Amino acid sequence: MSNNNKIKSFLKIVRSISVLSISAAIYILCLNYVDIIKSFQSKEYLIWINCSRKAISKALNDSLVEGWESRVLTIKLDEYEKKDCSAKPQRWKFQMK
Which of 8, 49, 76, 94 has its CA 20 to 30 A from that of 66? Predict the structure, then answer.
């Protein structure tokens, strides 16, 4: 009977450890989610997205200073992006060209 209790307690400990390890793995994955996703994106795309954000910011600042309407702003957003940045590259490293 005592041998049966030892086995049951051992199995309880193993189950607890497995549940805790799965929870820890999910937690670590969530902490590193952004870095994991960025590692799959191409370097050219990451450079382009930064350039695009700067161009959009510049266009929005100019629209506030000059008082553009929304129609003009949408046109100018495209112009600023085309002037400052290259064509949009493939987002993912594994995409076919």
Answer: 49
93 and 42 Cβ atoms separated by less than 8 Å: yes
- Taking the chain (97 residues) in runs of 10, the rounded mean pLDDT of each run is 80 91 90 84 91 92 88 88 88 81
Nearest to 49 by CA among 61, 60, 38, 33: 38
- Centre a 10 Å sphere on the Cβ of residue 69 and count the other Cβ atoms it contains: 8
Residue 81 CB neighbours (<10 A): 20
Record the pTM.
Answer: 0.60
The Cα-based distances of 63 to 28, 82, 88 in angstroms read: 43, 17, 24
